[in-house]
Amino acid sequence: MEAARALKVLADVAASQWGLVTTAQARDQGVDRLTLSRLAAQGHYIRTEKGVYQSASAPPSEFDELRAAWLSLSPSLLAHERQASPSTDFIATGVSAAALHEIGDLRQERLQFDHYKRKQTQRPNLRLRKRTLALEQITTVHGLPCTRAEQTIADLLEELGDLSIVSTLVRDGIDSQKLDLWNLRLSLEPHAAAFGFDTGDDLLSHLRELSGRGPVATLERAIQQTAPNLTNLVPPIDLMAPVREALQQAVSAPQFSLPPSALEEAAKTIAANLDSERLVKNFLRAFREAATVHVISGSYALPSEPDEEGTDGSISHSRGRGPGNQTSSQEPGEGHEAEPG
Fold this sequence. Notes:
Blueprint: H1 3-14, E1 20-22, H2 23-28, H3 33-41, E2 45-49, E3 52-55, H4 64-73, H5 79-83, E4 91-92, H6 94-101, E5 111-115, E6 126-130, E7 138-141, E8 144-147, H7 149-160, H8 163-175, H9 181-188, H10 200-211, H11 215-226, H12 236-250, H13 260-272, H14 277-295
Parallel strand pairs: 5-6
Antiparallel strand pairs: 1-3, 2-3, 4-5, 7-8
Helix pairs in contact: 6-7, 7-8, 7-9, 8-10, 9-10, 11-12, 11-14, 12-13, 13-14
């Protein structure tokens, strides 16, 4: 086939494969190995992996090596054909899956793939393992099938055995909202005893505390994120003491069974220590995000935000009001405009 025609044929294949094409795919399109080698010598294509070439005009990606390796494992099939049946294909796992999910910062010494059939390779940059994964354990990220983030974390905990390293994966997963904490608990359950924990709940709670993304740390961070915009706070010690106590009480129940009332009371206590409707509104917005996204991935009826702000930006309650500290001019439960009924 003449070069111009070959370039057109290869471009059609590579367009849907991140600019990549295998020698087997080229052959199926009538482009023999010699022609492909000549196109590479002329600078049109770059050999990136054994039997895999990439268009010189394709934009570079941090996932190029992983994609080329994946294509090389079933070189005759097109990417879209394989993506239709991920459970029977090669699945990126471990460090490779973490790289796709963009959690953690682990070095990929070898690219890791699991397959339901035993496969062998002599290539030093690949690690292949026989393993059957359920469909619910698999997802597709950046075009490649891989284990879900929760399963990836559980796999790396078993593989690395280092709670500190794995906690960074949990941190990144929570911050990027890529984790379903309930599913992560289930994925960690089989490994809890090996690390001295009774349940997956306990293990996950420990990992979250190590990562600085436990419930208390998360909600306290909501306060800190709001603080730069707060202008009329009570002294910090007066604010943080009842806040920290309320948060500790809110998370005293077993993980993932936090009673809605506990979170609501914590929010009310915090709001009671802010002295304007605007400040309460700003904080409750941050609190609601922290509680529903970071703490339990659930939905709670947290206090509603004030609709309007007073002309002077204040509300009629004592700054220090909290549990056991009502103002002398009000009856308990009255006169707090920012606090829901």
